[in-house]
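queue> pop job 88
queue> type: inverse folding (structure -> sequence)
queue> payload:
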């Protein structure tokens, strides 16, 4: 695999930092009115905050987890090549399996207990009760669970993926091919949501979003052969950024025109409806433009401050610990009773800083450092 990925590049690490921070902000936004599921929500009647935070959540969802899968797929072939099958399996079980187990059995129930008791002294009793009752909660670590599944599938079909990758060179990076990906993404999302609407889970996985996750993970595996993520040009990315920016407000416009502000149901989560079909393709167009822009702009940007290099190794740790951090920060600042958007900004920024710093502290422990 002479032309395949030979190591992490700085610009992709910077994207991982952005995505990890965005995950933390995304979950904080749900806490203050955005659409989605989270451990703790603070109800309020401010419609503008709910609309803006819901649009933020929808825009985030269009690309941020999908891009995590894209990057994970991009580094999967070289990991298998270097470590061999047994080493690859061992590495995945350590790097993904151990965090998944720790969160599912300990941190997830603790986050539930924290939310249930609103941070009172009863949190420890409630936590112990949840563990004794066998409550499991993978929370955001569903991502690790999904990656374990995808990695197992890759082991079975990697000769096919590699064969596809050999045919995908720079000449494959065309607008026509991107339209084909968007068509498959949107169609797959619409069809999956007939089975499992977004917001519903099977085995802790929101299957309704897996059209993009599957395409992007295995697309990333194929792209590794010729390092295509490092060859996104402004001529390719700029038109899609423009399309993405034009597309983002159309979801809100469609909802308003449909009467959502008057109480008319506007359900984009799934089913044989125009809103569900529109949302499936809205997500694909928005996500494609943002991902291409990130891959282009971060690669050609000037050398970043040294802080980025310090933060990069903490991404996985910050991702793992952020759920209890977000809930704890929300409970701590709730007495301030500021405007919901101000609460979101304060809680979100504090949660990002604390999560990355907590990860850095944990990684000083030798056993933890071997895992994350």
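queue> result:
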């Amino acid at each position: 695999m002479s032309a395949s990925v030979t190591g992490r590049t700085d610009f992709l690490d910077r994207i991982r930092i952005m995505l990890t921070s965005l995950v933390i902000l995304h979950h904080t936004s749900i806490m203050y009115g955005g659409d989605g599921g989270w451990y703790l929500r603070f109800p309020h009647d401010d419609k503008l905050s709910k609309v803006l935070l819901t649009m933020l959540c929808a825009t985030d969802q269009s690309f941020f987890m999908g891009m995590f899968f894209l990057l994970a797929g991009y580094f999967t072939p070289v990991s298998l090549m270097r470590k061999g099958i047994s080493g690859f399996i061992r590495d995945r079980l350590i790097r993904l399996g151990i965090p998944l187990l720790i969160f599912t059995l300990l941190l997830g129930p603790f986050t539930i207990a924290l939310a249930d008791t609103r941070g009172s002294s009863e949190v420890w009793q409630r936590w112990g009760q949840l563990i004794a009752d066998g409550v499991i909660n993978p929370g955001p670590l569903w991502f690790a669970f999904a990656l374990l599944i995808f990695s197992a599938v890759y082991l079975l079909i990697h000769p096919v993926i590699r064969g596809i990758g050999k045919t995908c060179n720079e000449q494959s990076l065309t607008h026509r091919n991107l339209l084909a990906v968007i068509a498959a993404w949107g169609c797959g999302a619409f069809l999956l949501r007939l089975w499992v609407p977004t917001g519903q889970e099977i085995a802790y996985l929101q299957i309704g979003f897996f059209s993009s996750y599957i395409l992007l993970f295995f697309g990333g595996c194929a792209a590794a052969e010729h390092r295509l993520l490092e060859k996104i040009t402004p001529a390719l990315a700029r038109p899609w950024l423009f399309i993405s920016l034009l597309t983002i407000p159309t979801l809100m416009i469609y909802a308003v025109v449909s009467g959502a502000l008057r109480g008319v149901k506007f359900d984009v989560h799934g089913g044989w409806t125009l809103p569900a079909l529109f949302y499936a393709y809205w997500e694909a167009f928005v996500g494609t433009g943002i991902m291409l822009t990130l891959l282009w702009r971060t690669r050609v940007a000037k050398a970043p401050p040294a802080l980025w290099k310090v933060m990069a190794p903490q991404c996985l740790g910050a991702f793992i610990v952020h759920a209890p951090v977000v809930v704890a920060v929300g409970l701590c600042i709730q007495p301030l009773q500021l405007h919901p958007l101000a609460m979101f900004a304060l809680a979100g920024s504090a949660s990002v800083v604390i999560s990355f710093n907590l990860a850095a502290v944990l990684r000083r422990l030798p056993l933890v450092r071997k895992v994350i």
